[in-house]
Amino acid sequence: MSRFRRRNHDVPGLNLASMPDLIFTVLFFFMIVTHMRQTELKVRYVVPQGTELEKTGHKGGVVYLYIGHPVDEQGQVVSDETRIQVNDHYVSVYEIPGAIAEAREKMSNEDRMRMTVNVHADRDTDMGTINDVKQALRQAGALRINYSATEKNKE
User: Fold this and answer.
1) Which of 88, 94, 111, 139 is disulfide-compatible with 107, CB 3.0–4.6 A?
2) How far apart are CA 23 and CA 32, in angstroms?
3) Per-residue pLDDT tens over the stretch 75-103
4) Are 89 and 13 a contacting pair, CB within 8 Å?
């Protein structure tokens, strides 16, 4: 009977040797696919809706222009006035050509040739303001303009 005596065997521990490899692989994956916002929004805007929209592919040379109501650091609307933001700075309509020229100087030659201005305007922005911005962009030589919108529900 001594042959069949029970012995207490401990359960072997988990092999964690490959854990750092897995963690770094997941970390690199998220670093590659995550898009970081390059500009800090200083205005709040509600994107208008449209029916005839098409996506555009941007490969560089993009200047972002936001039109909306100014917000503080917590994202709360400060006032009802309409403000214009080019990249990271508030500008007036008359300062837009200078801001576009400044952004153009920071680009490479290839990006300058296909520079596009993305306009993200609030849906309640006056058309007079939009027209003033368009005229200022025309003066700056920025003739490729995209307007941001979302697809309208077809209910």
Assistant:
1) 111
2) 14
3) 777 888 888 988 888 899 999 999 999 98
4) no
Interatomic CA distance for residues 144 and 118, integer angstroms? 9
Instruction: Give the integer Cα–Cα distance in Å for 61 and 109.
Output: 9
Distance (Å, whole) CA 120 – CA 85: 10
**Tokens 């936001």 belong to which residue?**
66
Report in angstroms the alpha-carbon separations of 55 from 148, 149, 150. Answer: 10, 10, 10
The pTM score is 0.65
**Unique residue bearing structure tokens 């029916």:** 51
Identify the DSSP state of 44: E
Beta strand residue intervals within the chain, DSSP E: 43-44, 49-50, 62-70, 83-86, 89-91, 116-121, 145-147, 150-151
